[in-house]
Amino acid sequence: MEYKTLGNTGLLVSRLCFGTMTIAGDNETALSENGAIWKSIGNVGQAGSDELVKTSFNAGINFFDTADVYSEGRSEAALGQSFKNLSIARKDVVIATKVYGRVGPGRNDVGASRGHIMDAVDASLKRLQTDHIDLYQIHGNDIITPIEETLNALDTLVRSGKVRYIGVSNWQTWKIAKALAISEFRNIARFETLQAYYSIAGRDLEREIVPLLEAERTGLLVWSPLAGGLLSGKFSRENQKPENSRRSEFDFPIVDKERTWKILDVIVPIAKAHNCSAARVSLAWLLAKPVVTSIIVGAKRPDQLTDNIAAVDLKLSPEELKQLDEVSALPSEYPGWMLPFQGANRLNPNIPRPGTLAAEKR
User: 70 an active-site residue?
Assistant: First the structure.
């Protein structure tokens, strides 16, 4: 396993992070009407959770991600219980969870307000059976709570010791930039990570978000690196709804399917050349991106997880990476196409300026 610092901190996390969306402890427990979606996603019981956590930990994964909304809190509870069942020391794992989604019927049982954050963190700590959360993330964009209120609440948690680092997920570029500026100006805890959708089939965040993360030394945690299973190897032009696939029932995240088939046309022969799965190639492509801190992988079976973990050891050649980059390249958009046009002289200061004698001699 390889490791990388979590954003602009000294905390080391594994390049792969085990995501617990699929686990739910006692999967026979009834869910509310609002939690119906978890019946098909979070259906791995406690014994299965223990096996997946054990497989991850034994492979060197020290980073585990969950959320208070996953199976209505039962995912957090299952993860905490797995650490207990497997006698894994708290200091040897980095636990990340999230707050924002609806966790109850009350008007304030949702969002990124100070009130909800303070209630939610204690509930998460109890379910996880721990006294602190390593990375506490705002799970979504709250359109009514001021950014300052959210950041001040998170800073309170950091100062209290309940939370060690903070992050955000699914926010717009401008809002992340504003939050980082507020934190610096007020000398309060800053977002060290962004958890975002990124895959070879969905490279949208490269337009604005990636440059921001690189400039601010903010870590990127990738969710749905296989585009909801579309890059797993099960899907193709000929078989667009395979059996026993979550995406066949829940078509998410949004992906340009025709573009994805073209990408898979390139991935498949590369996978055959390395005698591995298309999923492993897709993960290796992401791991080759310097901006990526850790990739969140989820699985229902140990063999799926083991295949994903092997992506760390798959090193694609420069030519293979070039092929994958070219087939998945984003179409040019303004101002993206204007920047290199106007910036050419700045990249090479030795190029004479137009209209000068040196330029005319050339």
Answer: yes
Residue 14 tokens, joined: 């594994």
What are phi and psi for residue 94, nearest 5 degrees?
Answer: -110, 115
CA atoms within 13 A on the CB side of 191: 32
Q: Which domains does the chain have, with CATH numbers?
A: 3-331 (3.20.20.100), 336-362 (no CATH)
Split the chain (362 residues) into runs of 10 and give each run's mean pLDDT: 97 98 68 58 88 97 97 96 98 98 96 98 98 98 97 98 98 98 98 98 96 98 93 74 67 84 95 96 98 95 94 97 96 89 75 54 51
Residues 6+ away with beta carbon under 8 Å from 190: 166, 179, 180, 183, 184
Sign of the Cα torsion 238, 281, 205, 330 reads negative
Name, in order, each residue with C-beta under 8 angstroms of 318's C-beta and a sequence gap of 6 or more: none
Phi/psi of residue 297, nearest 5 degrees: -115, 135
Of 3, 70, 100, 334, catalytic: 70
**Identity (one letter) of the amino acid at 153?**
A
